[in-house]
Amino acid sequence: MPQYQAVKGTRDIFPEEVARWKYVEGVVDAQASLYGFSEIRIPVFEYTELFQRGIGSTTDIVGKEMFTFQPDPKGRSLTLRPEMTAGVMRAAIQNNLLASAPVHKLYYMGELFRKERPQAGRQRQFSQFGAELLGVSSPAAVAEVITLMMEVFRSLGLQRLKLRINSLGDADDRLRYRVALQNYFSPFADILDDASKERLEKNPLRILDSKNPALQELIAGAPKLYEYLSEASVQDFEKVLFYLKERTIAFDIDHRLVRGLDYYCNTAFEVTSSELGAQDAIGGGGRYDGLARELGSSTDVPAVGFAVGMERLLMTMEKQALFDVVAPQAPLVYVVVQQQELADHALQMVCRLRNASIKTEIDLAARSMKAQMREANRIKASYALFVGATELTTGLYSLKNLATSEQTMLTLEALLELLGESAAGMQLQP
Ligand code: HAM
């Protein structure tokens, strides 16, 4: 076994797969731009407090999953970003973005880090693309964000995805619900496990997430959040659903959907893929009107956004055979040197072809002609172009079509014209 292995929960992405990533990223760029979102790039690490305040100190992400480090004994604690929303909001507040325009529509792609137990679809370094709409969180804004996410999926040809949606109520609804949960669970404090006891005080909503089998019956009987929604919250939610129906976006209302981050209010949603097994959430998001204040903003910044896991998205696309379309490759010319004294001349030829945007390869190791031809076939070159003494004296180059074995003699001008035309007609696809 080699001495150095990639860290568990991280992986290498080799060129063939990178082409798939780029294809997906291209679709994200195009859709985001269609919806008026511009790309933002934020740092990979931030002060730890940002995530503690933003995501919530009782969440699993902050409690157990952050990669936190201290740059020096006196330095402030830093954390590799486990998600993007808090960082994007920090950037907006710090740079006073909302002063220049009341609404900002930002999207991003990048790596995230969570110290979770690695398994299929769950990594310690993973990637997301996502979008955040800052400055307004009206039902139309929420529907816009969900529509963008679903349109990316549709453009990629994904099928059998399930969108689940819920209303978590506004801050007041949540406060009333919190008290109701505390009143409900308090008499059972003796049978609660230690984690749930702690949550009873700090964040009773999290008790509902407990996987402890001994508590499931008690949890099933707990008051339901939707019973505590105000009339305004219900109407807001219904309006979001109305927009989704109007756009024929299918959804299931799931009153048990609570997301693993504390900043959400009102509409929250998640998309799952039946192709994925245990880690089936491909993306999720919601409204987070309280985050800006939590992070020290002097004004309210209503906001809504989503993020999609790239690895899980690509896994689903693979399972649904969406990459099976054979990519038409730009034709590739392999310049074959017949006598090594002519190698420098052949290299000049390569430069000329590449300057004309023709994909060109050449052997850089002065190997035999037989080896060069073997390599040309291995890399699936479309043509072999021979450079030998005859070519030099006559100015006519012999070009062999490697698929048909047809061979033609061409002047350099004719060659550039022929290859340039076929190169221009090709586009890279998945
Ligand atoms: P999240 O649900 O924590 O939301 O993550 C979004 C997606 O990232 C998940 O649905 C999943 O596909 C992917 N993901 C999460 N953890 C892992 C992992 N360990 N390995 C592989 N993929 C993973 C957020 O991050 C919010 N910031 C979304 C949001 C944006 N809400 C509002 N705006």
Q: Runs with pLDDT <50, length 5+?
A: 426-430
**What is the CATH C-level name of the largest domain?**
Alpha Beta
Quote the CATH topology of the largest domain: BirA Bifunctional Protein, domain 2
Query: Which structural class do the helices and strands define?
Result: alpha+beta
CATH superfamily of the largest domain: Bira Bifunctional Protein, Domain 2
Q: Please, what is the average pLDDT? A: 93
> Radius of gyration from the CA trace?
28 Å
The small molecules bound here are: histidyl-adenosine monophosphate
Fraction of residues in β-strands: 15-25%
Into which percent range does the helicity of residues fall?
25-40%
Instruction: Give the count of structural domains.
Output: 2
Give an account of the 3D structure.
The chain has 430 residues and is α+β, with helices and mostly antiparallel strands. It has two domains: 15-170 and 230-319, 2-Layer Sandwich (BirA Bifunctional Protein, domain 2); 333-428, Anticodon-binding domain (Rossmann fold, 3-Layer(aba) Sandwich), CATH 3.40.50. 38% of the residues lie in helices and 20% in strands. It is built from 16 helices and 16 strands. The chain has helices at residues 15-34, 48-55, 60-64, 85-94, 97-100, 139-155, 171-185, 194-202, 216-220, 231-246, 291-294, 310-319, 343-355, 369-378, 389-394, 412-424, and strands spanning 38-39, 45-47, 68-69, 78-80, 104-113, 125-134, 161-167, 252-253, 265-273, 281-287, 303-309, 333-337, 360-362, 383-387, 396-401, 407-411. It has an eight-stranded mixed β-sheet with strand order 1-5-6-11-10-9-7-8, sandwiched between helices. Strands 13-12-14-15-16 form a five-stranded mixed β-sheet, sandwiched between helices. A hairpin with a 7-residue loop joins strand 9 and strand 10. Helix 1 (15-34) runs antiparallel to helix 6 and helix 6 (139-155) runs parallel beside helix 10 (231-246). The longest helix is centred in the N-terminal third of the chain and has 20 residues, at 15-34. It starts with 14 loop residues before the first helix and ends in a 6-residue tail after the last helix. Residues 83-85, 114, 116, 122-123, 126, 128, 130, 132, 260-261, 281-286, 288, 305-307, 309, 311-312 line the site of histidyl-adenosine monophosphate.
